Every structure is written in C-alpha cells, then in structure tokens.
Amino acid sequence: MRILIIEDEVAQSKTLSDTLTQEGYQNDVAENLDDARYFLQIRNYDLVLLGWPSGSDKNLDIISTIKTEAHKTSVIVLSEREDKESEIKALRSGADDFVRKPLDYDILLVRIEAKLRFGVSNIIEIEDLIINPEEEKIIYEGEEIELKGKPFEVLTHLAMHKDQIVSKEQLLDAIWEEPELVTPNVIEVAINQIRQKMDKPLDITTIETVRRRGYRFCFPKKIS
Questions:
Q1: Closest CA to 75 of 8, 5, 124
Q2: Which SUPFAM superfamilies match (predicted)?
Q3: Looking at residue 224, what is its pLDDT?
Q4: For a tag site, which of 2, 70, 123, 198 has the least CB within 10 Å?
C-alpha cells in the first residue's frame, strides 16, 4: 500500500512519514501542491493524507483532480480547523474522511486501515484479462499467469495508465524505491519478462514500445 502525504509543516510530515513507515506503508511526502501533482502523475496511490491549513482553501482543489484521475484513491483531510462547516466543506469537496489536528496517531492509523479495507477495489479488468495488484495475481481467460515481482509491478502501472505513454524514467520513479541506483535497462528486462512469460504463451499483446518515448499498455488482442 502506498500513501501520499501532502503537508507543508515539515515536522508534521516527517512524523507522519515515520509513523506510516513503521506500520509497513510505503509513502511519499509533498510539501506543496506542485510536488503533489508531480507525484500523482508518476505514481499510483491507495490513499492521500491532505493537510488543510487554516489560512487557505487551495489544498481542497486537488481533491477533484485526485478523484477524476484516480477515483480509486481515498483522501483523508487533516486540519486544525474545529468548526463543523469546515468538515462539511472538505467532505463535499470529495474527501473520504476528515481528521482534526493535533493528530491522535492511533486513531489516524485505524481510519487509514478502514479506508484501505473498504475502499474501491484496485482490480483491473479488461475483457478476459484480470490484474489484481493486491494479490499480485494475473488471470487470463480463467487461467492464472505466473508473473511476479518488478515485471508484475511494471505491467500493473502501465495498465493503470492504459493508452498513455509512460517513459522509462516515470516507471523507475513509480516502482523502484531508489531509482537513482538502477539503470533504465531494468525496465527493458521487466518488459521482456512480460512478453516472454505472458504475451507469447497466450498469443496476445499487452505492451507496445513507443520509440524514444516509452511504453504503452494496449488493449489485449490476439496477434494471429
């Protein structure tokens, strides 16, 4: 499970990040909306923790973007605002929950668990192809396909961005924890694994190479 923290208070964001890491969640921290939009473009998040400062309503605007482009992602607003009207405003803006500061981390973790447990399924279904990210499972025409690890994550990320061209750099940032320590060649290796273990045996095409730009998940169809 991956969580994006959008919080301009450095101490607060660090505590949030450390707490989530201890609980086994992968997470990224955006200190402003521009950074948040960048992360949302390159990565898929199960949940967003959105700080909402007292002096501005701008942070709420990003909720509509999240829900439009990644409607399966839950959003929890974190705010020191105590009035009922603010909570109503956040929820009407599309937030799934509203938690007041100062944060009780035990309560926050329970709410995060609840949203992830009862959130919209991340299962991808396209005709006879089913990709289940939570169970790392692929099923095609009723048969399970043996594809695990990074090749599975690459396939899933491309499938979640169906019909979009995704560059090697974007794939590295989205999937590898320390992308700067690996070479783009690992993407080619992962794509080759997908084609060897999945496309060729099943006689389908799932990923196409777009010269000098990256890769695109294409609708699976019979080659012959």
A1: 5
A2: CheY-like (SSF52172)
A3: 46
A4: 123
CB 145 within 8 A of CB 197: yes
Query: Token pair 């909570």 is at which residue?
Result: 87
Contact, 194 vs 207, CB < 8 A?
Answer: yes
CB-based contact 74:54 (threshold 8 Å): no
User: What domains can be seen in the chain, in order of their start residue?
Assistant: 2-118 (3.40.50.2300), 124-217 (1.10.10.10)
